[in-house]
Specification:
By secondary structure, the protein is an alpha/beta fold. It has a domain of 244 residues: P-loop containing nucleotide triphosphate hydrolases (Rossmann fold, 3-Layer(aba) Sandwich), CATH 3.40.50.300. 45% of the residues lie in helices and 15% in strands. It contains twelve helices and nine strands. A six-stranded mixed beta sheet has the order 2-3-1-4-5-6, with helices on both faces. It has a three-stranded antiparallel beta sheet with strand order 7-8-9, with no helix packed on it. Bound molecules: guanosine-5'-diphosphate (GDP). Guanosine-5'-diphosphate binds next to helix 4. Keywords: Cell cycle, Cell division, Cytoplasm, GTP-binding, Nucleotide-binding. It holds the Pfam family Septin.
Length: 365
């Protein structure tokens, strides 16, 4: 008898349409709350589950050595990801091949865990002959897609580790007059596989008018060569005006001109991350000095999820469709030669059935 009462109470509890607010203030249901079925709590359920599971994000950095890639990554995530990096001298760089190096850190902020993987590509663009130097990078991205495809088709789909590259920060030299041939080739080889975010490195080497000109030039060349860099999604019409303004500024600032620094200097009585020059200080986080804050906000605060979605829904889907197409065409080819599965002829209707179909046709007419 007791167990029946307990079970009834349990069912009642499970069916009760409590809102999140009521969970913390249990009591009688208000009249308007009686109307709720309870699915309004779904976002909270998803939120709790995601926070518990944690997040992961894989960021690739590419561009020739010395453009400040490691300094920028450290400035972005305030960690030292390159503790054991070996620097090569000029002679060693001549024959260096492109390597892929992965650094992973677990960072936590207000109880939210993020597993951040940085994929570095030392040696890219450094050799005298840079023909196809992007090949190891495209191969790496494809390998991650392949691994994911295999895991997805395997038995243990619950614990798949997602190592797909969600974004690639591509560093462009501030000393050129736009894109170099290797930049164009790199971006064209990768734009169908990964979200490319082009950056103008070491922006403190240029004056504001030079930055504007270089940005203009790069935008034109991106258009001219048909390069598809990451497109920021359209802002929702119901967003507030401040957010819309920020979104407009973000889109207008691309390609972001960035400055990195691992040192903290004193400016106007405040300690800031920046670079000290005889003529003054460039502050990394000052929006009048560079686009570092815009890049960080975009990457971490506003667009990280979209970058992951585009990777999954566009780039990975393309790879998957190609794979399936190749597998099917191979299967049909093999079938033609020596089919392990007998291909049965389609059944043709016998004369009785044909007569019946004709009769039915007449009836319908
Ligand atoms: P990486 O080889 O691309 O990873 O470049 P590093 O991060 O090792 O930086 C190479 C050199 O450039 C170091 O001496 C940095 O201090 C310097 N550096 C990094 N970022 C900047 C920047 O934004 N402006 C200037 N002027 N120098 C920078």
């Amino acid at each position: 008898m007791d167990s029946i009462i307990i079970q009834e109470r349990l069912v009642e509890k499970l069916l009760s349409p409590r809102t999140q607010a009521q969970r913390s203030h249990p009591g009688k249901l208000k009249d308007h709350e009686k109307q709720y079925v309870g699915f309004a709590t779904l976002p909270n359920q998803v939120h709790r589950k995601s926070v518990k599971k944690g997040f992961d994000f894989t960021l690739m950095v590419a561009g020739e050595s010395g453009l400040g890639k490691s300094t920028l990554v450290n400035s972005l995530f305030l960690t030292d990801l390159y503790k054991d990096r070996k620097l090569l001298n000029a002679e060693e760089r001549i024959n260096q091949t492109v390597e892929i190096v992965k650094h992973t850190v677990d960072i936590e902020e207000k109880g939210v865990k993020l597993k951040l993987t940085i994929v570095d590509t030392p040696g890219f663009g450094d050799a005298v002959n840079n023909t196809e130097c992007w090949k190891p990078i495209t191969d790496y991205i494809d390998q991650q897609f392949e691994q994911y495809f295999r895991d997805e088709s395997g038995l243990n789909r619950k614990n798949i580790q997602d190592n797909r590259v969600h974004c690639c920060l591509y560093f462009i030299s501030p000393f050129g007059h736009g894109l170099r041939p290797v930049d164009v080739e790199f971006m064209k080889a990768l734009h169908e596989k990964v979200n490319i975010v082009p950056l103008i490195a070491k922006a403190d080497c240029l004056i504001p008018s030079e930055i504007r000109k270089l940005k203009e030039r790069i935008r034109e060349e991106i258009d001219k060569f048909g390069i598809k860099v990451y497109q920021f999604p359209e802002c929702d019409s119901d967003e507030d005006e401040e957010f819309k303004q920020q979104d407009r500024e973000l889109k207008e600032s691309a390609p972001f001109a960035v400055i990195g620094s691992n040192t903290v200097v004193e400016a106007k009585g405040q300690r800031v991350r920046g670079r000290l020059y005889p003529w003054g200080i460039v502050e990394v986080e000052n929006q009048a000095h560079c686009d570092f804050v815009k890049l960080r906000n975009m990457l971490i605060r506003t667009h990280m999820h979209d970058l992951k979605d585009v990777t999954c829904d566009v780039h990975y889907e393309n790879y998957r469709a190609q794979c399936i197409q190749q597998m099917t065409s191979k299967l049909t080819q093999d079938n033609r030669i020596e089919s392990p599965i007998p291909i049965l002829p389609l059944p043709t209707p016998d004369t009785e059935t044909e007569k019946l179909i004709k009769m039915k046709d007449e009836e319908v007419r």
